[in-house]
Amino acid sequence: MSSTELPAVPPTSVLPEAAAVRVAEGERLRSVGLPGVTLSVRSRPPARAGLPPALFIHGLGGSSQNWSQLMERLEGVVDGEAVDLPGFGDSPPPDDGDYSVTGHARAVIRYLDAAGRGPVHLFGNSLGGAVATRVAAVRPDLVRTLTLVSPALPELRVQRTAVPTVILGVPGIAGLLTRTTGKWTAEQRVRGVLALCYGDPGRVTPEAFEHAVEELERRLRLPYFWDAMARSARGIVNAYTLGGQHGLWRQAERVLAPTLLIYGGRDQLVGYRMAHKAARSFRHSRLLSMPDAGHVAMMEYPEAVAGAFRELLASADASGGGPVVPGAGS
């Protein structure tokens, strides 16, 4: 594993066209070379030495920046790192072009194996929740606890507002969207995303909105932006159709780690109704329902999510941390 430190971008600076992604005060970003993939990893120094490691995995179209607020609030609890999945954030596309849920999970496993940080407290949002579920199922030795925020697990009846994400996975649609939305400004796109992902978009500060626009403008300049989005969306759809031992719900039943499930009542992408199915499927689970939250509760209500994780951690510590079983490799 090779690692290269990336230059930090001051929070108040304007990103030049070729600059790296924004790095908040107190964070650092480094590039980690692994077989077949290079990952950008965001970290925040823990408040003290010896804290247990944690890894955060973002959702479709997101990046490690989605976890910055939560990581800051947990710096006294865990030694946190957030990864940019291949093709997102500051991570280039995977060498093999595999954007499936399994492909993303394989990249996470390779990083954890190479870093030697496991078992970790593993967090996942949306697509990252599906990826984290697969990692926890196939490599229980790498996962101490599992926290899933609106995980993208199969639904029999997809919400109407989630249909565009499903359509994005159809071959050829990405090129069509590139042509038909070419005149949309980054501001228009960001407002649309916030309306879809937040329970209350008004909670986004003007500074956070400006940062999101800058990041999207940077991403749109990347030649693989739409391909990564479309192939990852297709990966979610394909994962929904898998049955047997590879099905995500079957894998959820295999997870041994204590699990915190967080669902938002205003989530337009993952059905709130799936919360109780998830609570039944993960054997050692606790459920936090947040009626006012949307799809990214860790960004809307980071204090509440941090508090729920602390409770999970206290419970796991009291019971000995839950079972850890040797894994069989990626």
Automatic annotation (TrEMBL):
Q: Which residues form the AB hydrolase-1 domain?
A: 55-300
What the entry lists under Gene3D superfamilies is as follows:
alpha/beta hydrolase (3.40.50.1820)
- Give the CC-aspect GO terms: membrane
What is the superkingdom listed in this entry's lineage? Bacteria
Keywords of this protein's UniProt record, alphabetized?
Answer: Hydrolase
User: One biological-process term from Gene Ontology?
Assistant: acylglycerol catabolic process
Q: Which InterPro entries match?
A: AB_hydrolase_1 (IPR000073), AB_hydrolase_fold (IPR029058), AB_hydrolase_sf (IPR050266)
Under the heading Pfam families, the entry gives: Abhydrolase_1
A Gene Ontology molecular function term of the record: monoacylglycerol lipase activity
Please give the PANTHER family that the UniProt record associates with this protein.
Answer: MONOACYLGLYCEROL LIPASE, MONOACYLGLYCEROL LIPASE ABHD6
- Protein name listed in UniProt: Alpha/beta hydrolase
